[in-house]
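Can you give me the bound-state structure? Components:
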Amino acid sequence: MAAIDTNTNQQNSFKIDMTDGVLVPERNENTIFSAWRISFVGAIALLFILFFFSESNLRRIMVFVSYTINQSVTLESHNNIKNELSVSTIPGNVFRERIIKPVRKTNIQKKFMSLYMYDEKSDIFEISPGLSEKEKVFVLDTIYSVYLINPFAEALKFVPDGIKTTFIVTVLAIFFASLIGLLVGLGRISRITFINRIATIYVEIIRGIPLLVQLFYIYYALAKIVNIEGIASAVIAMSVCYGAYIGEIFRAGIQSIPKGQMEAALALGMTRSQAIMKIILPQTFKVVLPPIGNEFIALLKDSSLVSILAVADLLRRGREYASKTFYYFETYTVIALVYLILTLFFSRVVGIMEEQLKKRG
Amino acid sequence: MDTIVKIENVIKNYGQVQALKGVSFDVCKGEVVFIIGTSGSGKSTIIRCINRLEHVTSGTIWIENQCVTSHQVDVRKIRENAGMVFQSFNLFPHLTVLHNITLSPVMVKKMPKEQAIDNAENLLKRVGLFDKRDTYPSQLSGGQQQRVAIARALAMSPKIILFDEPTSALDPEMTKEVLTVMEDLAQEGMTMIVVSHEMGFAKAAAHKVLFMDYGEIIERGSPDEIFNNPQHERTKQFLNNIL
Ligand SMILES: Nc1ncnc2c1ncn2[C@@H]1O[C@H](COP(=O)(O)OP(=O)(O)OP(=O)(O)O)[C@@H](O)[C@H]1O
Ligand SMILES: [Mg+2]
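Here's the bound-state model for the whole set.
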């Protein structure tokens, strides 16, 4: 997470340097072959290639057929497949598109055809009753292997859903963490000892406990008190944790505003709180926006930790998918690429934001 | 003449450091008082004690009938009466020139906004920067910034203005434009306490010059007395060094 550094005393430079998060692209590194472009375009291209050019359905079926012909199918080895498709009905359109058509092209058609029933009226596919366990497995396996046309492409199916959850968690968490951070930052510079201590203790405690442990702790502690759903408690846990780090950014930001600003405000008759609201904070926001943008990226990445709670984020959806299909490699390839694309994208957004701020002085 | 500021035996300690060792002087209405002295002699400290940016360790300061050093006093009332101009201008960089000037009257004095803007525009005309009303401080030269800062202090209609080395950060040209504004102010009868080493300006505008050394006023008198006929050895040394 963020380690922050203010160079308060170095000639009017109020930038807060970040030593973590994703590398925010530098303005002067804007050639076509900048590191950012290579990674970003590369990741997207790789996803495309995997999507369109990996194993075709036909080849998969052939492999499957030779496999079932030469070896007997054991029930145990396909239990998970049975689970997946234990609903023995599949919507007809899916059936036609994904199964009948590909199967027709192979020589298992005949054998396969005798094992299912297809009701055109209700457009429902059903496995024929009275099949032996082995035959059922065969049908299911066939369907399954055909159904999964391209493991990479299939792995991408859970992505939008997972991204949505990841996104909701990240955006809500960064919002609440910023609120908490603002309060903590103000508390850390407060002259009221009690408030100052509370804020400081909070920061010390949070920064001393690994995020993963905090997630577990808050999740199960919350579960003891109130009954809230996974996303909410994940957001609370992430906000509480990141609030401490963002609080430190706010504190550093406030302290990076030259002392003369507060003095000038006081000399004009403002109270300390008026000065903070009207003079110090507006300037602080400008200073802390880039590092908070960076925290946003760090949080986006750390949000993958909530997948261990019952939150169906990108990583968890992927894990569920992989454990059903055993496409571990494909799934995690896709997940890694998607995270990479997301973080690279947002690092660019943060970079642009930073430039805009610089331009406006 | 009426005494407007009365400073009696002010001592200020920063931990072990004794910044002021018993400073006393009076300022009359309409008077321009110059404070000169070596670096670290306590010039800024005494000026900052007057508007309570610093609190004295002991001693009393009065502005008219307000006791600045009392614990009960409303610090904000004091600061409304004693405006301050800083060496580093300290304009608010996120606000336009006009907004810099109107902010405090509207927020602190509850002045209606239109009146504050009117007022600010007049002040800007006075310091010759009316055309800069909508620009941001970073787009102004140092001299222009300092003139805005003076207008900002004037907007609170203070009874006195404290200047802490208002031209030290400026080159000669810009210094001149700021001094012109200050001279006008002095002419109009504004009470001013000025920490500055601009001898020419002191000779032209000051009524009284105080020479400070190691937290004490060791010589005081008219500009003519101090600059042309200093009595104290330290004063002579100092003047030799800076002239
Ligand atoms: N906040 C502070 N904490 C500790 N010591 C201080 C503080 N402010 C001033 N001092 C000390 O008090 C003494 C007087 O300082 P002051 O700023 O009043 O000097 P000055 O005459 O204004 O000097 P200069 O011409 O350099 O501005 C110095 O020795 C300084 O180190
Ligand atoms: Mg000083």
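A couple of observations. The first strand of chain B starts at residue 3 and ends at 14. Strands of chain B lie at 3-14, 17-28, 32-37, 58-63, 66-67, 82-85, 160-164, 191-195, 208-213, 216-221.
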